Amino acid sequence: MDVWAPEAGKPVILPLSFVLPDTPRRGIVVNVATMRLFQYKGDGTSMAVSTYPVGVGTKERPTPTGPARVYRKAARPTWHVPASIAEDHRKKGDPLPPEVPPGPENPLGEYALYLSKPGYLIHGTNKPASIGLKATNGCMRLYPENIKVLYNDTPVNTPVAIVNQPYLIGQRDGVLYLEAHTPLEDAGTLELAKIYEKLRAIEKKTGRTLDWTKIKKVQTEARGIPVPIFELRQGSEKGVPQTMEVRHPDTLHGRPEIPDLKPDAWYVLAADVRNELEARRIAAIINHQGPPIPARVLAKGNAYRVIAGPFTDGSGARDAAKRLKIDLEIDGILIDPARK
């Protein structure tokens, strides 16, 4: 499935069940390999768990694993720009101020949980499209609606565990499940060896042979969906949940609204390509910048143009062109309404 230009009418399978990470179930647990956060609440006799998708660090600046805690919280936080990020922007010709106040330009969004690992946060975002991607400088981003709930439900000093577990096994109603994700860099071999060791221990305990061909298939496909691989008791697989069809929502939350074309407005020509799919993909990426830059695809002859705008004046168009260059390395061309 193309992330930016999904094919119309193509079915999408969404996981509605998740195997919990193999770690103590308390506070907040983030599995960077599955890009998912789990929040545990309970008093020892009963336990509730909530889960949210997250965006995590890039290959160059990965999210660190290990224990931490929430040492403070902030609503409408000010972003104190780290020196490394300030240097990156300076090299691009985009100097940042030492602090970015709350508002649409603030990448922390509306809420932030500051961790005891210096410089690392769990926070909201002004780029919701980055959730589920390796797109941060090491912090963990949540959708705006999710971080609000997590913020209100998380007291200071809550323990946080960050793990890297691409392969997960769990059981429910007498059925053993395997959930496999594409491992992050340099972690796959070790994590696969760990899960195979656990599976062999299950074979030894039950005295029955696992279907290793099926296990290998699940691991190779890495679909991120729990797949039943073994009946722990006779007839238990009859209760395995089946795929169900859900109605397409009337409203797509987070979808940018693109203003109508205006003859007297400024625009930026972002791309001129032959392939319609490529043009749609570029327009979607631009639309999902933070804050969004409206963009659309217009056909012209045998080519497709990606046009960003409308902008009320040349200053707005120039600012957008600058952001396209810095964030996406796109050399935009200003379209002056007086010269159309």
Task: Write up what this structure looks like.
The chain has 340 residues and is of the alpha+beta class. The protein has 3 domains: 27-163, L,D-transpeptidase catalytic domain-like; 167-234, no CATH class; 266-339, Sporulation related repeat (Alpha-Beta Plaits), CATH 3.30.70. Helix content is 22%, strand content 28%. The chain has helices at residues 83-91, 144-153, 188-206, 212-221, 276-287, 314-328; strands at 27-31, 36-42, 47-53, 56-57, 66-75, 79-80, 99-100, 111-115, 121-123, 134-136, 140-141, 159-163, 167-172, 175-180, 227-231, 266-273, 295-300, 303-311, 333-335. Strands 3-2-1-12-5-8-9-11 form an 8-stranded mixed β-sheet, covered by helices on one side. A 4-stranded antiparallel β-sheet has the order 17-18-16-19, covered by helices on one side. A hairpin with a 2-residue loop joins strand 13 and strand 14. The chain is globular, with a radius of gyration of 23 Å. The model has no long low-confidence stretch (mean pLDDT 91).
Sketch the topology as an H/E string, one letter per element. EEEEEEHEEEEEHEEEHHEEHEEHE
Please state the CA-atom Rg, rounded to the nearest Å. Answer: 23 Å
Beta-strand residue percentage:
25-35%
Helicity, as a percent range: 10-25%
Largest sheet: 8 strands, mixed
Write the CATH architecture name of the largest domain.
Beta Barrel
Strand order of the largest sheet: 3-2-1-12-5-8-9-11
Uncertain ranges: none
Name given to the CATH homologous superfamily of the largest domain:
L,D-transpeptidase catalytic domain-like
